[in-house]
Amino acid sequence: MKTVIRICIIGGGNIGLLFGKSLIQSGIVNTQNILIVEKEPRQIAYIKQLEIGKVQSNYDKIENYDVIILAVKPQDAQSMFKELAPHLREQQIILSFMAGIKIQTIQEKLKIHRVFRAMPNLPALLGEGMIVYSQSVNIPKIETYYIENLLSTTGKTLFVENEELIDAATAISGSGPAYVFYFLNALVEASKQMGFSQSEAELLVFQTFLGSIHLYQSHNLNFEEWISKVASKGGTTEAALNHFHNSKVSENIIEGTMKALKRAYELSNVDL
Questions:
Q1: Which label site among 12, 80, 175, 250 has the fewest CB atoms less than 10 Å from its CB?
Q2: Is 216 helix (H, G, I), strand (E, B) or coil?
Q3: Domain 7-162, architecture per CATH
Q4: What is the pLDDT of residue 104?
């Protein structure tokens, strides 16, 4: 690829703006080489204030950009494909963040061979995201390397050859932050029932969670080994864990993620 890369982001919502900001902060691209296409007038005015790059409501001169990022909602994909396709050229790269829309579908609708599909998650807002991505076949290594660097501006990346694992990532890392917040919220509520104030409960729970993650990362022990270090025979932790086990909490969590995966598959099979 050439030294100066021009990037167009289709969709000026949360994901589109997130990546626009990350690209600029990382130095991969400057504001002169970013274009954001957004339809909503109020959002256009907001984007202009951010000074991320140029912004417009149409697809004029899209053919001048090297990488086209698709950051629109899946339900808007059909109309976007129809409007965008006539403005593209074969040599461009497509990077899609649309949940459920397969690489083959994007290739067929846009008549573009080089297509990457990625699933980011919310912590990307802080540069702590987890992005799983896949790609179409026969893409030059230099282009794969560039897209990986682009994605890495928002956190960790994981490449998968099997595109179906993008749907699995949607159910785990994509939806995962909500699972974490759900569990944290339950612990906060339990703390309040025990007599702590809201702020005290949040401090207890959040620091316990953060400390546990850092502890796990600093030693070569698996989850079960760490559990055994906390739960002594006949102690308080064992009492809670026994209740979780009898209530099949672990099984319910796994079943819940499978429901998310099923929904991701349903989205992937939407007829466009």
A1: 250
A2: helix
A3: 3-Layer(aba) Sandwich (3.40)
A4: 94
Q: Helix %, strand %, coil % for the chain, to 5? A: 60, 15, 30
Matching residue, tokens 């429901």: 259
Q: What is the 3-state secondary structure (H, E, C) of 248-270?
A: CHHHHHHHHHHHHHHHHHHHHCC
Distance CA(250)–CA(74), nearest Å, equals 31
CATH number of the domain at 176-267, please? Answer: 1.10.3730.10
Q: Which residue has the tokens 């991701």?
A: 264
Q: What is the pTM of this model?
A: 0.87
Q: What totals of helices (H) and strands (E) does the chain contain, helices first?
A: 11, 8
Helix (H) or strand (E) holding 236: helix 236-246
CA 137/CA 115 separation, integer angstroms: 9
- φ, ψ of residue 14 to 5 degrees: the values are -60, -50
Residue 125 vs residues 50, 149, 222: alpha-carbon distances, Å:
15, 17, 29
**Rounded CA separation 97/3 (Å):** 24
Instruction: Mean pLDDT check: name the lowest of 1-10, 42-51, 82-91, 162-171.
Output: 1-10
What is the pLDDT, as a whole number, of residue 237? 97
Per-residue pLDDT tens over the stretch 20-39: 999 998 888 999 999 999 99
